[in-house]
Amino acid sequence: QFRPQGRAGGSVMRLIPAIDIQGGRCVRLRKGDFADMTVFGDDPVAMAERWVSEGARFLHVVDLDGAREGAPRNFELVKAIVEAVPVPVETGGGIRTEEALELVASSRVAKAVLGTSAVEDEVFLERALDVLGSDRLVVAVDAEEGFVKTKGWQERSKVRALDLVACLEDRGVREILFTDISRDGMMRSVNLEGIRELAEHCALEIIASGGVTGLEDLVALRSMERLGVTGVIAGRALYEGRFTVAEALAVLDEAEDD
N- to C-terminal Cα distance for the chain? Predict the structure, then answer.
């Protein structure tokens, strides 16, 4: 079975710091709960510049207001981040309409992350692939106890994560972002078993998210590169200083020497 062999210009495994925006500020939620929020900064652009100055080669920006309301709400900030940093930026949150697709397609955003719309609207997913192409599209598979959640993680669907991934692969999606919601922001380590199960059932590139707590999590994920796990999103661990961008990159880049 084909597995991605990485990209030119660096390690296969990408460290992707997360910048979650709500009300124009940088925040982190616990398990996607809007009532359990920590504010880490009032200037998302400055935060993006900080991570890049520390060595980040990619950024993951989420419009939390957009995810909850169903349409982009902080896209001007997203565009400001893209203009301010020289690294690829992927963004998600409320990309559920043709208008939102065109907004992203016409911008310098590297990749759009689709969540709810990809689960609930097959026609829209096909349209997104047409407009953006598989290289600029990532589908978020946000799961709790094996089932996908939508609407900014507010609603639980009856779709199993493994079944959704199989459908996405059939439709030409090439990259997914898998989050175990029960671990997200909880500093309880990543769900290695869930990620491994997903990776062994598909040939998609997988970005792992949710629960990254320390460098040992990165070491464990790095061991799954050969299964197609090619990226890891770090949020609270970076913001709380559990490790630095440089320390994380040192661990992930060791994969080249193994």
Answer: 22
CB-based contact 149:142 (threshold 8 Å): yes
Tell me the residue type at 245: V
Global pTM?
A: 0.90
What are the backbone dihedrals phi and psi of residue 70, each rounded to the nearest 5 degrees, phi first? 95, 5
The catalytic residue positions are 20, 142
Q: What is the pLDDT of residues 112-155, one digit of tens each?
A: 999 878 878 899 999 999 999 999 999 999 888 888 887 666 67
Categorize the per-residue pLDDT at 232 as very low, low, confident or very high, splitting at 50, 70 and 90. Answer: very high
Give, in order, the Cα–Cα distances in Å from 31 to each of 22, 112, 185, 196, 198.
15, 22, 6, 21, 20
Distances (CA, A) of 47 to 11, 112, 204, 211, 238: 24, 20, 30, 21, 11
Q: Which two tokens stand for residue 98?
A: 């043709």
18's tokens: 């997360």
